[in-house]
Amino acid sequence: AQTVTQSQPEMSVQEAETVTLSCTYDTSESDYYLFWYKQPPSRQMILVIRQEAYKQQNATENRFSVNFQKAAKSFSLKISDSQLGDAAMYFCAYISNFGNEKLTFGTGTRLTIIP
Amino acid sequence: EAGVAQSPRYKIIEKRQSVAFWCNPISGHATLYWYQQILGQGPKLLIQFQNNGVVDDSQLPKDRFSAERLKGVDSTLKIQPAKLEDSAVYLCASSFSKGAKNIQYFGAGTRLSVL
Fold it and tell me: How far apart are the first and last CA of chain A?
């Protein structure tokens, strides 16, 4: 079974600084997608960024970028120029493109932005 | 474009009572998901619909949980009778179709407290 591990329950960063959230996953598949979702206090899960396993280039979305290391099964999220609105729970998630196409989430990292 | 709508936002019930949650997916989305998110954990899939058919309900506690999507649009999730351990946020998500390449969009969830 696929598992997703987020080893940092909490992180904090000064406003305007850069922070990196870690995620590792375990799978025997080669074709899959990885995601970072943001969950603010409003509870709605918002997609931050998506990475397809077959794409070697790391995905970027404005201030958000990932470091995807397929061999190491690592998928970290870098947030540049942190803003107060970035404060939220961040969940790493995995879904296989073959067979059991079920979205599996990690336990989340709570990010605090220090003004 | 309207997002995934859920109601109610909050619900407090006593154990052994019944409760129902409602979800209206994004227009045109064929696939609908219900997730359970226990405090401190990532969401866990309960059931997945493709149109009005069940694709995966392997994680649904069928002795007390039921879900339907009769016309392939709106969906309801019911718990009867509720237990203390059912206290959680219930998230609904939808995607254009099933398959890993289709992004899941989430609603704001219903927070259930069972006393």
Answer: 41
DSSP state of B100: T
- Reading chain A (115 residues) residue by residue, the pLDDT tens digits are 689 999 999 999 999 999 999 999 999 888 999 999 999 988 889 999 999 999 989 999 999 999 999 999 999 999 999 999 999 999 999 999 886 678 999 999 999 999 9
Q: Are A107 and B40 in contact (CB under 8 A)?
A: yes
Q: Which residue among B42, B103, B108 sits closest to A44, beta carbon to beta carbon?
A: B108
**Which percentage of chain B shows pLDDT scores above 90?**
89
Q: How far is CA B112 from the centre of its chain?
A: 12
Q: Do B108 and A108 touch (CB under 8 A)?
A: no
Amino acid, res. B110: T
Chain centroid offset of residue B108 CA: 11
Nearest CA in chain A to B41: A107
DSSP per-residue codes, A73-84: TEEEEEE-S--G
Tens of pLDDT, residue by residue over B60-84, are: 999 999 999 988 899 999 999 999 9
Whether A25 and chain B come into contact, CB under 8 Å, resolves to no
- Residues from chain B that touch A104, judged by Cβ atoms under 8 A, are 42
A101 vs B99, B105, B108: nearest CB: B99
Among A41, A44, A43, A37, smallest CA distance to A23 is for A37
Contact B22, B76 (CB under 8 A): yes
